[in-house]
Amino acid sequence: MFKRYLWAVHFLFLPLGAYLVADMVNLVIGSKLEASIKPAGEDVSPSFSSVVSRESYLDIIEGNIFNAKMRGKQEAVSTPQMEVIQAPPPDLRITLIGTVVGEGGEGGEAQEGVGTLSYAIIEHQVTHEQILYRLGEMIENQARITKIGRDEVVLLMGDSQRRLRLYVEEEEPGVGTTGPTGAGIQPEGIVKVTPNQWVLDRQEITVALDNLPQLLTKARVVPNFTGGKPDGFRIFSIVSDSFFSKIGLQNGDVLQRINGVEVKDPENFMKVFQQLKGETSVTLDLVRNNQKQTFAYEIR
After folding, report:
1. Cα separation of the two ends of the chain
2. How many CB atoms lie within 10 A of CB 250?
3. pLDDT average, residue stretch 98-124
4. What is the C-alpha separation between 284 and 269, in angstroms, rounded?
5. What is the distance between the alpha carbons of residues 63 and 77, in angstroms, rounded to a whole number?
6. Cβ(134)–Cβ(101) under 8 Å?
7. What domains appear along the chain, each with residue ranges and CATH number?
8. pLDDT of 228
9. What are the tens digits of pLDDT across the range 262-291?
10. Is 99 within 8 Å of 119 (Cβ atoms)?
């Protein structure tokens, strides 16, 4: 009878034996793995002896695995700069009379977004009208001013840039040249009556204002600010024996009023300046070394 049920006993013990054998194998493998793992609490994060530099990836970059055509060293592609053409187109017919480079301009020039308090005085040759333009403004809907320098402006016309240089009429030999003046001797046509009063020959005014481009090369004028607000124009880089020096102006003077009219903005300054031709007397309010002064000129 025992033999009759022996096959049933074998059938029950076979799965149990397989389970025990599998469990023993797991224990052996687990012990091997446990020996190779660091104890809990120790830092298991990988350590690097140094930071990997960008050059270490050059082999991967040059051997582009995604695009066979781009494998190998890649040459840097430079963006071509727009060429600045020396002359404006003939059909524009404009002349640069003068410029004012205000605060923010670097290296004696200002461009869009930098040195926005800069202006250019441009004359239209057909009408002979002189108009004051700011950075970014359009000229006759053809050209936009992108840069203003001391003696030039750069215009953007379509995809090209044009450089408009300051027009200066050449003086005839012998004209405007005088010998050195001694102490207390005034240039011909200008007489200093008191420390703050002069008598001017009308011809001096006419010659100076008729050749405005030449006059504007004899000094630099920039907007002046006090407490963040414009309060006039500061003059500097005055050429000796120029019209500006003859009428008593000095480097650093801040011009605030002409004939009682404030000159805070360039438009007003140019308007008043050009009206001096017909005047018989002119008063100039300025600040010199933080002291207010008034100069008086009688024109004969």
Report:
1. 155
2. 13
3. 65
4. 12
5. 19
6. no
7. 84-165 (2.30.30.830), 190-299 (2.30.42.10)
8. 80
9. 887 777 777 777 777 788 999 999 999 999
10. yes
Question: How far is CA 299 from each of CA 206, 208, 269, 276, rounded to the nearest angstrom?
Answer: 11, 13, 20, 10
Residues ≥6 apart with Cβ < 8 Å to 290: none
Structure tokens at 261: 């009219």
CA distance 174 to 188: 15
**Minimal CA–CA distance to 92: which of 136, 43, 40, 144?**
144
Q: How many CB atoms lie within 10 A of CB 260?
A: 8
Q: Which two tokens stand for residue 90?
A: 């003939």
Locate 31 and state its tokens.
Answer: 């012990």
Cα gap 21→15, rounded to integer Å: 10
Give the three-state DSSP class for 36.
Answer: helix
Distance CA 163, CA 85 (A): 6
Measured CA to CA, the distance from residue 26 to residue 34 in angstroms comes to: 12
State the Cα–Cα distance between residues 127 and 139, nearest whole angstrom. 14
Given pLDDT bands bounded at 50, 70 and 90, which one contains residue 107?
Answer: very low
